[in-house]
Every structure is written in C-alpha cells, then in structure tokens.
Amino acid sequence: MRWLVGDLQGCAREFDRLLATIRFDPARDELYCVGDLVNRGPDSLAAARLWRDVGGRGVIGNHEVYALLARSGRWPRKHDTLEALYAAEDGPALLDRLRALPPLLYLPGGDGFAPAWVVHAGLDPRWEDLAEVARDLDAPAHDDDWLESPEVSFATRVRCCTAAGERSRYDREPAGCPAPFEPWDAHYRGETLVVHGHWAWRGYYRGPRTLGLDSGCVYGGALTAWCQEEDRIVQIPAMG
After folding, report:
1. Domain of residue 82, CATH code
2. What is the span of the domain harbouring residue 219?
3. How far apart are CA 128 and CA 103, in angstroms?
4. Helix (H), strand (E) at residue 62
5. Contact call for residues 223 and 18 (beta carbons, < 8 A)
6. What's residue 240's pLDDT?
7. Which of 69, 71, 73, 154 has the fewest C-beta atoms under 10 angstroms from its C-beta?
C-alpha cells in the first residue's frame, strides 16, 4: 500500500504508533510525508530516523527549508527543536535526505485507484503543466539559493493567494483569507487530486480536488495518513 502522512513536526511517538496501526511493512508498502517532518515537536531526530528507516519519501516543507538554512548559517536560528538533529552523528546524512526532497511529486494511479500530486503547501495558480513544473522545480541543485527561490517558497508556504500568484501571510481558517486573497485551491482547475499539508488551522479536509492532511498533531490534534489505493484515512491522536 502507498501511504501519505501529514505534518509530523517531530511527533515521533505518534508516527511510530501510526506505522504499527497500519501494519506498515517497508518490503511491501510505500510511505510519503507531505513535508514538515521536523521542528516544533519533541523529537525531530527520532522522526527523521524512523522516516529514513522505513524508506520514507515525500516532498520538502517550510520547516525543512528552515532547518537546512539555519544549519548552514544562511538564516538566523529561531526558537526551534532541532538541536538533537544537528548534533547527531547521522544528522548531516538525515539533513541531506531532507534537502534532496522535491517540492512537487506525482504519484501514479493504478488498477482501481487514481493518481495524485503531492505538495507541502499548495500550487501557484500560474502553474499549468504540473509535470513540466515538477521537473523544472526539482532540476537545479538543491543548494541554499534553491531553498530560497520564489518557486520553492510558494510550494512550501502558500495558504491564501490571488489568481496572479500573490501570496498573503494569513494563516488561520480558510474563510478568513482577506480579500482579494482566496485559499490557493480555489484557483486549482486540474482534475488530478492534490494532497498537501501545512495548514493546521484548516485541519484534515477533503475538497473536490484537494486533500489536506495537516491535522495539527504537534498542537494536540491528530496525525493523519491517507492510503492512496483504498482512499482510506487513519488518524492517531496526539499523545501529549
């Protein structure tokens, strides 16, 4: 089975329980994280190691961008929970795995189930040919300049935007997006389902062509996972 899991943000215990609940087998199953594996939560190092150990894949999120740029000295450190990850012997290798993640990923469908696009935050309304966009976004070296590029920033940070791709910094409930901004998915016209995270205030939801998996585990909500083949949701409550 192919599983996509919402924002972990260092919630390693819930992640471990989720894998047990779905009886995840790395020899048989696939795991994709929709970004923000690390930071804010209690154990970013354990979450990143578990993701690595089960062959995890996914897309890059804004907290990966922060972790990498803060580690390189490009950005100043804020209040974060990354010290154990930075200090670990395998920390550099884990950070390299996070840096290698693409901003936009296509997961093909199969017998009886539909394909999906995966992005951490959302899509720029001006992105028409998503296959071409995905190739172009991932093609450059994933250096610090790439992490700060407008395209990666959009894919990892957007919530509300205009049809012209102007972003708002608003981050609460979708209904509160200040005019002329709307939730990014209001501008999406594609037929393929887009699975994303990043919007904890929105929580888990299913729209006509979008699926949001950030249910705010790090804030006391749940950790949400979706099985692509079965179109099935599994949620693990935050453990405190």
Report:
1. 3.60.21.10
2. 2-237
3. 16
4. helix 62-72
5. yes
6. 72
7. 73
Length reported for the chain: 240
Rounded Cα gap, residues 35 and 66, in angstroms: 12
Sequence-distant (6+) residues with CB within 8 A of 59 are 32, 33, 34, 35, 101, 102, 103, 104, 105, 118, 119, 120, 155
120-143: per-residue pLDDT in tens? Answer: 999 999 999 999 999 999 999 999
Q: What is the dihedral of CA 224, 226, 232, 235, to 10 degrees?
A: -10
Rounded-to-integer distance, Cα 38 and Cα 35, Å: 9
Amino acid of residue 115: P
Cα gap 27→39, rounded to integer Å: 28
Distances (CA, A) of 72 to 43, 76, 143, 216: 21, 9, 10, 28
Residues 124, 135: Cα–Cα separation, whole Å = 15
Quick: pLDDT tens for 153-176: 999 999 999 999 999 999 999 999
* Rounded distance between C-alpha atoms, residue 107 and residue 211, angstroms: 14
Nearest partner of 155 among 31, 33, 62, judged by Cα: 62
CB atoms near residue 111 (< 10 Å): 5
d(CA 225, CA 34): 10
| pTM check: above 0.85 | yes
Cα(150)–Cα(80) distance, integer angstroms: 24
Q: How many domains, the chain?
A: 1
